[in-house]
Amino acid sequence: MTAPIPVPALPSGVDPAWLPPAAFRPLGSRRTLISGTGPLVDTVHGEVAGASDRFGGQVLRDGQEPGASYDLVLELGDDDSDELGDEGFALVRADGVTRVTAAGQRGLLYGLFHVVRLGEAAFQGERARELHRPALALRMLDHWDNVAVHPVMGQVERGYSGGSLFWQDGRARGSREELERVRCYGRLLAASGINAIAVNNVNVHGAEAHLLTDRIGEVAAIADALRPYGIRTHLSVSFAAPVVLGGLPTADPLDEAVRDWWAEVTGRVYEAIPDFGGYVVKADSEGQPGPFTYGRSHAEGANLLAAALAPHSGTVHWRAFVYNHRQDWRDRSTDRARAAYDHFAPLDGAFAPNAVLQVKHGPMDFQTREPVSPVIGAMPDTRLAVEIQATQEYTGQQRHVCWLGPMWSEALRFRPEGQEGPSVGDLVRGGGLVAVSSAGDDPYWTGHPLAQANLYAVGRLAWRPDADPRAALDEWIELTFAPEETADPARLRSGLHAVLDGSWRTYEKYTAPLGVGFMVQPGHHYGPSVDGYEYSPWGTYHFADRDGIGVDRSQATGTGFAGQYAKPWAEVYESPATCPDELLLFFHHVPYGHVLRSGETVIQHIYDTHFDGVAEVEEARRVWAGLADLVEPARHARAAERYEEQLRSAREWRDHINTYFFRKSGVPDARGRLIH
Ligand code: GCW
């Protein structure tokens, strides 16, 4: 039987984000033929039927009216399956017909959303056959959502968008409206190219551990809601589950009983969720249990779960975020940046084929500016995924505008072996791109309406890691704001670009300088506190004194971290003379008078960027205010309100940082501006 699956209804008051009804007008006012069968084809049918009902078009399913003429054909055909893969599609337009051909159902779904993105352009002129295929097979969002409200971290760890879409006060959200919203979320994500979600926090607390066993039904309900949009569900599990849930005396990965336990439990997971994606594991990290307890390696740990998942074609995502979070700040020989490489690079080649090592893009922890993690270039015989953070823990917590597309793109395009070698995007083909999600039950999904751009870009950059992030931003602007339907499309487009394009660099200017990182308030990580983590056990220091600042990570005189890179980077980062300015203090401890490659001294750079950063926020706030007549009023007001907070906070950052370094160094601002 083939029947359309109706488009989920957006609960009232919830923002349609990048899928407003109007985006479906070009498609919905045409005649469409859908050919093929399967549940996702029914989803595609539902999408076109919904659009056609609204805009007066027509949709027919194959065989209903042979010989009629169509404007759009969406077809499943297996002729080109090698070329198209499961998720790719071909697009061609000839003789007045736009044709999307896919070999797999997901491909057809992505083809449909591509037509939506193209808008009227999909139905004009001729178009030579284009092949669209994702570069990365796994494009995933990790939710750091707790089931029960955590006493410190709340419902969503590092969440700035209200509550969880999946969980509330200890239970799964299960009302019709709540599940409808989960479907809407899946739909938005599919339209951006996402195909997997991990539904719970990698810090697996007591209640959450049970999702694996007696509460798997709750996960299955989420999986059911996401499946029509081609999204597979993954679960974060505790390495200690055999002890905590199974009552075994050990979780040792080499213990037979432990292996049997995982095999059996995993079998039951697949009974509940036949297309379950697999496990995500944070082990031996920030208090989570792991194989070190039993004297086993992380490959042995990961392979335990990989073995349990293999018969079902599941994957274990094993996180490389392993470091000593109880280090002594007095001990200058320990360098947190080294930790992932030191732990994992020696294990290259030891992981099972269905184990993916998930590596944060930088060696520290999602700071505003970090070099690319050296792990990514050092494990050619391991399936790697790169992890980025859409939730803006260290980039303004969705109270500040910080468009992260350029930052992620720089990381994905970085070439660990130099210009001749593969990019990060190439190196993670086996594992994919994973982003910590920024979405919650907030009416705008992401708290700040402009933070939706980041969520959208995750899927688009995972689809094509070498894409220009500006193209993703343009798509998001066109879909979300429909400039053509406003009184002044050009002013709206240029205004949005003005406030978003450079916002990451603006944020960088008024926060921690030159790649040194942190300087945030401990715990919640919002707002400045220069020494907040300086004498803490977390390994995140800047070492500022009266003479200079920065972390010496050179091989010659420092922690040796620079030597974890291959050439040319090991050499580039080794010397302050060749190290890029923006990373200088990540790699070197220099005097305040050190002259940057820009020609400015470090101390003057700190003053200048902090004054400039605030001026740029003032300007962005002014530009945004000037768009009031072109943006939906509630959305405009929400962002306008957040600009007030961003400006207050940027000024606070400026004054903390400038005053701190003036007091430390005694060097006055060459331009005589007010430093308190
Ligand atoms: O950045 C740190 C966060 C933690 C997080 C951890 C991780 C989920 O502050 O909240 O824990 O990273 O990535 O595991």
From TrEMBL:
Enzyme class: hydrolase
Native organism: Streptomyces jeddahensis
Transmembrane domains' residue ranges: none
Cellular component GO terms, alphabetical: extracellular region
PANTHER family: ALPHA-GLUCURONIDASE A (PTHR39207)
Known EC number: 3.2.1.131
Gene Ontology MF annotations: alpha-glucuronidase activity; xylan alpha-1,2-glucuronosidase activity
The protein's name in its UniProt record: Xylan alpha-(1->2)-glucuronosidase
Keywords for the protein's UniProt record, in alphabetical order: Glycosidase, Hydrolase
Glycosyl hydrolase family 67 C-terminal domain: residues covered: 446-673
One GO term (biological process): xylan catabolic process
Domain Glycosyl hydrolase family 67 catalytic: 129-445
